[in-house]
Amino acid sequence: MQRLEIDAETLRINYWKSINRGLDRYLQDLKGIVLLIHNSAEIDDILSFLKRLRPKDELDILYISLVRSFYHIKLFFDERKLDKKRLHVLDCVSSMITDIDDKGIFRGEEDIEAIFRRPPSDFHRLEGLVSEGLESLKKSGVLADMVVVDSISQLINLTFPTESQLRDFYSFLNAIRNKLMGVMHDTFILLYDDKIGYVRHIPIVHADHIIRMEVIREKPSWRG
Amino acid sequence: MVRVMVVDDEEDLRNLVKMVMEKEGFEVESAENGKDFLEKVDDFRPDIVILDVMMPGLTTKEILEKLREKSLDPKIFLLTVVRFSEDEIKRLSEIGNIVEYITKPFDIPDLVARISKHAEA
């Protein structure tokens, strides 16, 4: 009997370049749509990254959190201030466990505040939340320079995405570019946590920059 | 036999946990969301509930409140991909008997070991 052999077909080749030594130079002018792929970075890792972005500029950041509550973020923020940056958190997590009015707003600190909303169930709703967050800040006299979404892995699994998920994701990226990017909002950072699986579908056409952050943690083997 | 209920909208995860727990000798029932859970809980009367925090429909707080209205007090393992502050979890523990807070992805044998420990207690 003849043996049936099926060879794997190469679909795409991705090239990666490590620029660790030049990272700060690269980050000081970062603009556009940025996909930051990470392996379960915690909030202090993300705050450290944000701190390195355009360090000379005063920036207002709309931080849409789908995976960390505002009070969790705030604990770390208090220890790790962002220098010239102010963080406006749109918390889509706390409503899952606490009685937070959907219109609720937290104020009280100079450089961190929050509004609370229910989590979006798809990219279309996420787009609405981004617009709403920007509008809400505008009403209080703040023009956001940067938007961070943490994390789109809540809405798509880039290991085995369905066709409709990919379609929604790409139209979300197009909407960001066509409707929301401009002079005031010049940087969109989309975090993606790849802890569930290897990223097979990378939106290379729709993103201006793709950065991979690898967090290596280990328990110290010796304590003095 | 200790009765365990797995409540998660991810079907694969729900089935996997159910299969492993049954193999370990637990009596297991599953539910795909809070509403489904509350419909089944009166009949099944679980000793332990493995509850996903982020599901469509009812919030975790609403599920725990309704469970309390039914005068049921199973041990609850919260499964979550999200991060809360300790104070927030503490406040939630005032409504339900939360014994562990486990972040996804988790190790199945580790989950079984933790549940077995609480089942014996």
Describe the structure.
The complex is a heterodimer of chains A (224) and B (121). Chain A is α/β, with parallel strands linked by helices and 224 residues long. Chain A has a single domain (30-213), classed as Rossmann fold, CATH 3.40.50. Chain A has helices at 23-27, 43-52, 70-77, 123-139, 163-180, and strands at residues 32-38, 59-65, 85-91, 105-106, 112-116, 146-150, 187-193, 209-213. In chain A, a hairpin with a 5-residue loop joins β4 and β5. In chain A, α4 (123-139) packs parallel to α5 (163-180). Chain A is globular and about 70 Å long. Chain B is α/β, with parallel strands linked by helices and 121 residues long. Chain B has a single domain, classed as 3-Layer(aba) Sandwich (Rossmann fold), CATH 3.40.50.2300. Chain B has helices at 11-23, 34-44, 60-69, 86-93, 108-120, and strands at residues 3-7, 27-31, 48-52, 75-80, 98-103. Chain B has a five-stranded parallel β-sheet, sandwiched between helices. The longest helix of chain B has 13 residues, at 11-23. Chain B is globular and about 35 Å long. The two termini of chain B are 14 Å apart. The model of chain B has no long low-confidence stretch (mean pLDDT 91). Classes of the chains: A alpha/beta (224), B alpha/beta (121).
CATH topology of chain B: Rossmann fold
- The helix content of chain B is 40-55%
- Order of H and E elements of chain A: HEHEHEEEHEHEE
Largest sheet of chain B: 5 strands, parallel
General form of chain B: globular
CATH topology of chain A: Rossmann fold
